[in-house]
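A student in our group prepared the protein record below, which I am reviewing. What it holds is a sequence and that sequence's fold in token form. My question to you is simply how this chain folds and whether the tokens agree. Do not assume that whoever made the record got everything right. I have pasted the whole thing underneath without changing anything:
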Amino acid sequence: MNKRMAELGMCSRREADDWIARGWVKVNGQVAPMGLQVKPTDRIEIDKKAEGQQATQVTILLNKPMGFVSGQAEDGHEPAVTLFTPQNRWRDDNTRFFFHPSQLRGLAPAGRLDIDSIGLLVLTQDGRVARQLIGEDSTMEKEYLVRVSYLGTGEPERSADERPGALRTIHEDDPVTTNVQAVFPPAMLARLRHGLRLDDQALKPAKVEWQNPEQLRFVLVEGKKRQIRRMCELVGLKVVGLKRVRIGRVMLGNLPVGQWRYLAPHERF
């Protein structure tokens, strides 16, 4: 029952269980008991109380600074949700929501952003948003700007500023930090786009291109733990800085570091 309601985009499975327990869900005109098996042809109706509860749920866009963890506090580091205070609200947020402590109830990150990464983090009370962003069948694009240095593979690489025919070997203790694009093999860029494996699984194709000689743009449709950093390690790159700038159709934009705004009613991921 809860799975079917989530598939229909009505709510999250957790919300569905809560609504069923409250008697807010009917199937074919009858109040649904917990654990009811439903068929695709069954008619599911939701009580106005459930719709009202959903309407008060908020989704927050936060520009997470370095040093904050996405979820629960760990190793002495504060969770990003502690930045959700009236003082940290972006002054250019023109949505007509008012901050209330009740908005912290059930507010959870819809996806991770590593402690040493910055940029767009979504926190939501709405199970529909969470499922859209991190559900099992989610293919939501996430865009990152990634500053890199090149550690190389120990094989000779041509230096961009050396005369033709001159070769040098790049070692881990002497990384290339400027004009990385000039020394990074095109074949390795192709592997970043498709062909790498993590955790014994082939990665889905990614969009990867140079933004400038020291920075790559990644667009992923999956989110394994520390995925971009681990992908880069496999091709001899080291991530120097990582910033998420887009999730679906929602951009980080000019939101300042450490500040947040509400997802506007008209915005859709």
Summary: Residues 13-22 form the longest helix (10 residues). The first strand starts at residue 25 and ends at 27. Residues 154-169 have pLDDT under 50 and may be disordered.
